[in-house]
Write a structure and sequence with these properties.
Layout (H helix, E strand, L loop, with lengths): L1 E2 L6 E2 L6 H10 L5 H4 L4 E2 L8 H12 L3 H11 L14
Antiparallel strand pairs: 1-2, 1-3
């Protein structure tokens, strides 16, 4: 889950390559929601063995109320720090 800032605009997506996708978001490679609203901070994530499981989870989370998503983020990342690893780690 990406956020613009603490308690800001949220974006939820699924990818097979998190590092690559984060890099694309931060560079603004694709024009759209995340660029328009400045949503570039990785604040929450989880891994799945199978892509169909990840897609199913994403669809469920997208139906969640905003306050539930905020609680999910704060359980993992109470300060809403950017969890994106340094480029040197990619």
């Amino acid at each position: 889950m990406l956020a613009s800032r603490m308690h800001g605009t949220l974006y939820l997506g699924v990818t097979r390559d998190l590092a690559r996708r984060l890099h694309e978001h931060k560079l603004g490679v694709y024009k759209g929601f995340t660029e328009r609203y400045g949503v570039h901070r990785l604040v929450w994530y989880e891994g799945h063995e199978r892509i169909d499981e990840a897609i199913s989870r994403e669809k469920r989370l997208k139906r969640w109320r905003r306050d539930w998503k905020i609680r999910l983020v704060e359980d993992m990342n109470p300060l809403w720090s950017d969890l994106t690893p340094p480029l040197s780690d990619w």
